[in-house]
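Ticket #340: bound-state structure for 6-O-phosphono-beta-D-fructofuranose.
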Amino acid sequence: MKIGILTSGGDCPGLNAVIRGAVLKGIKIHGQEFVGFRDGWRGVVEGDIMDLPRQSVRGISKQGGTILGTSRTNPFDGGGPEVIKAHMDRLGIEAIIAIGGEGTLAAAKRLTDVGLKIVGVPKTVDNDLDATDYTFGFDTAVQIATEAIDRLRTTGESHHRCMIAEVMGRHVGWIALHAGMASGAHAILIPEQKVSIEQIAEWVLDAHERGRAPLVVVAEGFVPEHLESPHSERGLDTFGRPRLGGIGDQLSSQLEERTGIETRATILGHIQRGGVPTAYDRVLATRLGMAAIDSVVDGHWGTMVALSGTNIVHVPFEAALGNLKTVPQSRYDEASILFG
Ligand code: F6P
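RESOLUTION: The complex was predicted; output attached.
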């Protein structure tokens, strides 16, 4: 059986480990053959593939990015099931392993509903997909953010400044919550929780009065109490979603004005998605890739592999779609005991 693999949407540390896990298990255990679609769904709708023999995945689980390339192409734009089926038949590809986030899995579901053989592997650095406890890449992003915030803290302490670290997290604040807790932030601001500037300033002043350099960690999707939507001044992405980023700078001037403490903001941005995955993410991603092969062998089309506790399970696409995995109130309340 020949299987096509694609990586779609924003890249994420661990994508290559998924590919390696799937290819090695498929070749070694089932004698399968693999190709990669270049740049996500673009490669599928254009029939643009590369061979994935065993040697092509040698040593790649520690590599950041994706050897296949990625894009935010929608397979229904200029493609659709007929075009994709025709390419698959011509290239002798029977099944697809789609590694991607909500948009990718939603498209995969629509294609599976009309008869294409697709299984999914959930991918999101934000950790916002439902039906899986954690996604690979999240641990790496938290590690990178924590290291960066630790560095901001020492420069903040030297200058007696308030430092703001802006991290990724479009709809959910998992990266901010974990990196903020790990680095001992005096305030963590996430999209799920509206907080007033007055409250943030109070936390900053509390920390300052104890002789600390106040440290604020804010997710890019955070919306202060007096606003309606996240800060965005960079236009739209290819999915028509506002490009986020910049809330840290906005808070910086507002907090400096209110507290009188010199304040600096740093946007960590794509640094959080680049470079080598942590050992945890390599292991999780490898296991997910191998489990995706089991789904293919068992013909579990329309399902994705997922982490439940420490086990890898198989769940229908629907389970992951529709609901975001937000930070529960209890987790925020727990973290906020440490604010100020
Ligand atoms: O969905 C993951 C994510 O990293 C978000 O946190 C962020 O808003 C977005 O991707 C950035 O995407 P792009 O790579 O298109 O700038």
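RESOLUTION NOTES: The first helix runs from residue 15 to 30.
TICKET STATUS: resolved
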